Amino acid sequence: MATALYLAKLRPEIQIRLMDKSGGLQSATRLAQGGLAAVQLPHDSFEAHVKDTLEAGHYQNRPEAVWEVISRAPEIINDLSNWGVRWDRDESDKLHLGLEGGHSYPRIVHQADHSGKTIHEHLTFELEKHKNINPIAPGLVRDLWIKDSKCIGVIVWREDSSQEICLQARHVILATGGSGAIFPRTTNPPSATGDGLAMGIRAGVKTAGLHWIQFHPTVLLNSGDDRAFLLTEALRGAGAYVVNSSGRRFLFDSLPKGELAPRDLICSAIWNEITLNPGQMVYLDCRHFPKGKLHREFPQVSSLCSQVNLDPEKVPLPILPAAHYQCGGIIADRWGKTSLPGLFAIGEVAHTGLHGSNRLASNSLTEALVYAKNAASYLANQSLTQKQEVLAEQIKQIFSLEIPEDNSPSYPWKDLLFDHFIRKTPPGSALLRDIRLRLQILNLGVNRGIYSSKTLQERNLLQVYLELFNSMQASNHHDLHYQEN
Amino acid sequence: MDLSPLQSQLVNLKTQKNAVILAHYYQRPEIQQIADHVGDSLELSRKASESIAEILVFCGVHFMAETAKILNPNCKVLIPDLEAGCSLADSCAVLDFVQMRKSHPDHLAVSYINCSAEIKAHSDYICTSSNAVKIINSFPRDQKIIFAPDRNLGEYLIRETGREMVLWDGACAVHEAFSVQKLIELVQSYPSAKILAHPESKSEILKIAHFTGSTSAMIRYITESSADKFLIGTEAGILHQMKELAPEKTLIPIPTKEDTTCACSECAYMKVNTLQKVLQCLETESPEIILDPLVSSLALVPIRRMLQLS
Fold it and tell me: Which positions in this protein are listed as binding [4Fe-4S] cluster (chain B) (predicted)?
C-alpha cells in the first residue's frame, strides 16, 4: 500500500492495481502493537540503534541495509505524520518514545498499543484519494506470470467466477507478508500462508535466511483458535515467572538467567518441558504481582485475559511458543528489486538483510516503509514509453474444487514443525515424503485446472515448508537458533 | 436359491439401509450369492458410477472400492476389511511413479485399474484388462506410452498392439506364482483342454494359452466355445461364476507353485472378506473409504477417459 502511495505521488499517471486475497482486511501490520523504532536526536544515536539491531540479529545482518533503514526511520515517521497518523506525545508536544527489549534507548514512536492498526487505516484512507490506484480487487494470485525469464504479470484465481485470469503488468511488487500459518500456532493473521514467497520460489527467485523464523515464547494458549494472543515480553521483565504444572520455575534448570534469558532459548526450554513430559503444561505466573499492577501497567493483557475468562491475579496463564516473524525471505536490493526482472519484494516477504537471523522489535514497519519509498522512486524513474508487447488477457475456466469444512486436510506434520525449528530436530524422511507427495498432487491440480483457494494456499504452505527445511539443512548451524546444541 | 440365516439378515439390512452390494468374481461364493451385482473391476466401476444408492458395500480389494468412491463421491462406500489390499497396486509407489513420468515427459501414462487413487491421479488414462488394447490403439501410432503397474500385462500389450512402451516393474503376486512346470503336467493329463489365461499372467503361460482375456472375456469364451474342458489360469473364485454360467463344461484350475494340495490359485486378499464382515460393516457403516477431494477429482479424469473409450 505504501509503495502505491509513494509512487502515485511521484507519477500520478501510472495505473496501479492492488491485489489482496483478503480484500484488504487481514494484515500483520494491523496487529503490530509496538510501533516504529526511530532515533530521535540528540539523546539517542543512529550508531546505538545500529548496534542494537546487529546484536539482536547475531551479526548476520547486511550492514548497508541496517544503516539505510535506521538512518531514514525519522523521515518515515514524518511521511506517516503527513498521511495523518497521530503519535503519542508528552506534555511539551514531543514524541512519546517507548522502550522495548533489545533497544538501548527509548525510541519506539507509537500510538498507544495499536500503532499498526492506525497506520493501516490511514494508508487505506489515503489510497482512496488516488484515482490511478484501482481499489483492491477480489482474487487470489495463484502464480507469477513469467515469460522469457521476466515477470510480466500475475495469474489470478477468481473463486466467484471459477476463472483463472492472466493480468499483465510492467512491474509486480510482492508485499504478501510472512508464512506463520505453516506453524500450528502463530501471531500472524490466518492469511499468512507465504503466498508471495511460494510463488517466488516456484519462479526460481533467489531467497535467503528462510529458516530464520522468530518465535515468541509466551503466547496465551487459547484452545480452538489458531491465532495466538501475545503476552508481551515486558511481563517477564516486570517479574512474571515461567512455571510448569507443578509450579516449578524450570527455566533455571538450563538457563542461569531464567525468565530474562533470550527469547529463543526460553522457547527451546518451554518446548522441551512440554514435549519431553507428556501432559505437562507451561504457565506465565503473575499472581505475586502487587494488586492492581497488571491492570495499571498492562491494560491490554488485562482486557485480553478477561475476554477469555482468566484472572491473572488468581490463576497462572497457560502459554506456548508461537511463530512470530520470518526474518529471511526473497532477496531484495535497495530498490526492492529481486533476482527476477520485473519482480519486487517489500516487507516481511523480502530479505533485505536488516534483521539478520533475529529481528529487533519495532524494526519491521520501518523497513517496509523505507523500501516501499525506495521502490517507488526507482519505478517513478522508469520510462513508460519503452515499447512493450501487449498480450491478450487470457482467461481459463477452472474446475472449482468444493471441499467441505469438515473434510479439510489435516496436517499431522504441523506440530512437528515446532520440533524442527525450536529444537532443531530434522524431520523424518517419511514426513518429507508425505509432504512432497501432497505437493505433487496440489501442483497437478493447478496444472489440470482443478483447485480451490484452499488447495492453492495449502500448496503455498507446503512449498514454503520444504524451502524452510532445505534452508535449515543448508545453514551452517551457527545462527542463533542452533545455540542449544 | 436358499439363503443361510446370515445371508437373509444381510439382505434385509441392505434393503433397510438402501444399500447396494457389489462383489468381484473372486469373492467367496456365499458373498456373490447375495450381491446386487457381480462382475470384474470395469463392470463394477460402471455399476458404482450409475448407482443411486446411499451406501455401496464393495466386496473386493481396496483399489476397487476407491475407484467406486472416485466415480460416486457423494455415495458412502464401505469395504468389509481394509486389509483387503492388492499386491499389484501396492507395488507402485507414487513418488517413484512421478519420477518415472518426469524422466519421460513426452509419454502418456496409462495405468491398469489395479493401482491406488494417487497413481490414478497422476495418470492420463486408466484401463482394465478387457479394454487396455482398445485404449492403447486409440492413440496415434507414434504416441510414446508409459504403462504401469503390471509388467506382465504390459508385455502382453506390447505384443498385441506392437507399440513401444516403458513398463513399470510391478507384478501380481498370485499370477506370478503360476508354475509352468505344473501347467505342463496338467496339459499332459488333459491334452484336449483349452488353456485360458488372464493377461496379468506370466509371459510363459501367455505363450501357450489358447485364449488370453479378462475375466468376463474368459467366461464368454467358455460359453461360446465348442470345447468341453478348460484349464483356467486365474483366481479360483472365478470358477464359481463360470460353473454357474457353463454347468455342462469341465473347468480345471491351473495350480500354483506354493499350494499344490488345493491345486488352485487363490488371491489371499480377495478371501479376506467374509459374510460376517460384510454384515458387520453394513451394520456399523465402517470402515468407510475416505478420499481427499482433490485426489479424487484428479483421479476421475483418467477414469472418465477410459469409460468414454470402452
Answer: 86, 172, 267
Q: DSSP secondary structure string, A40-77? A: -TTTS-HHHHHHHHHHHTTT-S-HHHHHHHHHHHHHHH
What CATH architecture is A1-212+327-402? 3-Layer(bba) Sandwich (3.50)
Could you tell me the pLDDT band of residue A404, with boundaries at 50, 70 and 90? low
DSSP state of A405: G
- Tell me the average pLDDT of chain A: 86
Distance (Å) from the alpha carbon of A161 to chain B's nearest alpha carbon: 19
Starting at the edge strand that comes first in sequence, how are the strands of the sheet with B108-112 ordered?
B125-127, B108-112, B145-148, B165-167
**SS3 category, A181:** helix
SS3 A483: coil
- B247 has binding-site annotation: no
Q: Is the Cβ of B291 closer than 8 Å to some Cβ of chain A?
A: no
Q: What kind of fold does domain B88-172+298-309 have according to CATH?
A: Rossmann fold (3.40.50)
The full length of chain A comes to 485
First to last CA, chain B: 34
**Is there a common fold for A1-212+327-402 and A217-322?**
no
B260-270 residues labelled b (16+ CB within 10 A) or e (exposed): eeeebbbbebb
Q: CB neighbours of A68 closer than 8 A, spacing ≥ 6?
A: A334, A354, A370
Residue-wise pLDDT tens digits, A239-293: 899 999 999 999 999 988 888 877 778 888 998 898 888 888 999 999 999 998 8
> Would you kindly state where each structural domain of chain A is located, as residue ranges?
1-212+327-402, 217-322
Task: Give me A20's grid cell.
Answer: 489482496
**Nearest by Cα to B42 from B171, B129, B137:** B129
| For chain B, percent of residues with pLDDT exceeding 90 | 50
The architecture that CATH gives domain B5-84+271-291 is: 3-Layer(aba) Sandwich (3.40)
Answer for the pair B271, B66: CB distance below 8 angstroms, yes or no. no
This complex has an ipTM of 0.77
Return the H-helix or E-strand segment holding A471: helix A453-474
Q: Please give the single-letter amino acid code of residue B248.
A: E
Calpha distance A422→B76 (Å, rounded): 42
Tracing cell 496465551 back to the chain, one arrives at: A220
* Residue A296 neighbours by CB under 8 Å, 6+ apart: none
Q: How far apart are CA B193 and CA B184, in angstroms?
A: 12
Given an 8 Å threshold on Cβ–Cβ distance, is A450 in contact with B294?
yes
Report the CATH fold assignment for A217-322: Flavocytochrome C3; Chain A, domain 1 (3.90.700)
Using DSSP, state whether A422 is helix, strand or coil: helix
Q: What is the CATH superfamily name and number for domain B178-264?
A: NadA-like (3.40.50.10800)
Q: How far is B99 from chain A (nearest CA, A)?
A: 11
Distance CA(A38)–CA(A75), nearest Å, equals 9
- A452-471: pLDDT as tens digits: 888 999 999 999 989 988 88
Note whether A408 contacts B: Cβ–Cβ < 8 A: no
Is B136 annotated as ligand-binding? no
A142 catalytic, yes or no?
A: no
d(CA B205, CA B201): 7
- Digit-coded pLDDT (tens) for A213-248: 999 888 888 755 555 688 887 788 788 999 999 999
Count of CA atoms in the C-beta half-sphere (13 A) of A364: 29
- Our measurement of the distance from residue B21's CA atom to the centroid of its chain's CA atoms, rounded to an integer in Å, reads 17
Which residue ranges make up each domain of chain B? Answer: 5-84+271-291, 88-172+298-309, 178-264
Phi, psi of A440 (to 5 degrees): -65, -40
Across the interface, of A403, A407, A448, the residue whose CB is closest to B298 is A448
What is the pLDDT, as a whole number, of residue A250? 95
Chain CA centroid to CA B58, Å: 13
Whether the predicted pLDDT of A360 surpasses 70: yes
* Contact by Cβ (8 Å): A317, A241: no
